[in-house]
Amino acid sequence: xxxxxxxxxxxxxxxxxxxxxxxxxxxxxxxxxxxxxxxxxxxxxxxxxxxxxxxxxxxxxxxxxxxxxxxxxxxxxxxxxxxxxxxxxxxxxxxxxxxxxxxxxxxxxxxxxxxxxxxxxxxxxxxxxxxxxxxxxxxxxxxxxxxxxxxxxxxxxxxxxxxxxxxxxxx
Amino acid sequence: xxxxxxxxxxxxxxxxxxxxxxxxxxxxxxxxxxxxxxxxxxxxxxxxxxxxxxxxxxxxxxxxxxxxxxxxxxxxxxxxxxxxxxxxxxxxxxxxxxxxxxxxxxxxxxxxxxxxxxxxxxxxxxxxxxxxxxxxxxxxxxxxxxxxxxxxxxxxxxxxxxxxxxxxxxxxxxxxxxxxxxxxxxxxxxxxxxxxxxxxxxxxxxxxxxxxxxxxxxxxxxxxxxxxxxxxxxxxxxxxxxxxxxxxxxxxxxxxxxxxxxxxxxxxxxxxxxxxxxxxxxxxxxxxxxxxxxxxxxxxxxxxxxxxxxxxxxxxxxxxxxxxxxxxxxxxxxxxxxxxxxxxxxxxxxxxxxxxxxxxxxxxxxxxxxxxxxxxxxxxxxxxxxxxxxxxxxxxxxxxxxxxxxxxxxxxxxxxxxxxxxxxxxxxxxxxxxxxxxxxxxxxxxxxxxxxxxxxxxxxxxxxxxxxxxxxxxxxxxxxxxxxxxxxxxxxxxxxxxxxxxxxxxxxx
Lengths: 171, 509
Description:
The complex is a heterodimer of chains A (171) and B (509). By secondary structure, chain A is an all-beta fold. Chain A is built from no helices and 16 strands. Chain A has strands spanning 2-6, 12-19, 24-30, 33-43, 48-53, 56-65, 68-73, 82-88, 100-104, 109-114, 121-122, 127-133, 136-141, 146-151, 158-159, 164-169. In chain A, strand 3 (24-30) and strand 4 (33-43) form a beta hairpin. With 509 residues, chain B is α+β, with helices and mostly antiparallel strands. The longest helix of chain B has 17 residues, at 248-264. Chain B is globular, with a radius of gyration of 26 Å. Chains A and B meet through strand 2, strand 3, strand 4, strand 5 and strand 6 of A and strand 17, strand 18, strand 23, helix 14 and helix 17 of B.
């Protein structure tokens, strides 16, 4: 089974898991190339995940909220800790090469302007929707160029953080 | 004083309820409909809903707050910071209702609400203010003379304006005439008044503020200073005490200025007198007084070993400072505070709202956490997005900073993006470690960018994502790690009800 995750920094990771010799055989493919290993996983009562590889265990904190994963870990290269949010990309649909990109509301707020409608061609970085939260307006921009496939919000609507606003498809 | 109503929310409401508990005083929380299960509601003895989510109809609604006090029989009100804390009408209404106002009386704060009036009070108290003059004679020779008296660099400002419009910085005498002409044109067009004044521009200014404490019997003391120069667009990000760049003589002078200002207006309770410190001229200038407990009060508390909330409560019930401070006031070591915000620095610091899927605050020696939220709490979109303050103490500044970095590294907040990576970077920055940070430093150093935009995680940590991420398989327990029974994750990971066996009530509490 293979899934694809996006980090907000723009990195895309393909991770897969299958039964392995001593646990799960997992592989991660991303910017740094591919890494594959057999790992055992334990889950602590408090919710930490303990990942054992070649007898060495490291702990990560993982929370899953809908389609989004929050992962905190301490990289061994500098022992600084970080939390990274990953959004799982929807499976590819449509014809060969056709991909969708979904613009989601980064926070709960009110939609004050919708700049586009289905069929509009947009450039990367173009403002698509303006959402107001905590008395500030935030212009949400196209993550890439494309054609608006679907507008899932209307002016005045209260949207939850993570709610789909606009979905793009390839030109 | 038997029961205190806390007219606030978030971490400060929790902090005040805890102070009440120490003195055996009851606490009442008020909450909006958006905060029905909030942590401050749970930590107070009693709680009353005072209206809908919008602050104007709840936390800022004077009649609703007073009604909650009547309903619960509270005999005193603590306003916290923000909201109604510096609202003269509220202070008056509380007193008129026969309740104890935990703060300075309305008549004390009313005369210093305008900056001009406060500056006049400062001058009367012998407290230094930044040199400034209204421009009467606009001839070149007169302007040159004014420039000579104020000193360069200076600012030319429209007297009836605001928002920085028409403001001109002048670095050399020969630029002054032209700057005045430009400023007059803009002022005339924007404010229908071309009156101007000039004031000294403090380059690389430091924000240094003095904590003061006064009782109802005329005694006023200062509780030393804090420095809060690490600011992003005038919002404080990191605060510390003592100010690392002051000599003992400079410290004594600025603290005495703070005390003198408070004494001049007959202040009562805890307050803060803010100054700009000019690191080149080594002079301080009065800015304004905040007539409330400040967000950053804990750094003073950890350095002095003094509980400022307890002091406020004891002053309010008429105790003398000589009793409250009987154990002395000495600065010991160094305290640093960071404000943890639900905001996304990488996306223009957009405030984040949502549910906190998981929160682990640090639990380490010499570290204090004043939190308004914990796992499962909602961060509403309606209010300031500060989640918590984390404060460390050290025998010296570096030790305090190292402890705070370590504490932030073990802090976990899932569900909303926070500024924690940025705080970690700032605490380790040579500019901060070298005590070089002035009020414009953060904006100048990072511009529109954000500190703490780290690299990608190590691939190994992503194994967890593979195994337990959204839509993934998960090991259900130690025995299930062999790639056997795969289970679809539906967001219920960490739900204690899924794991709980038979429930036990009672127990030995």
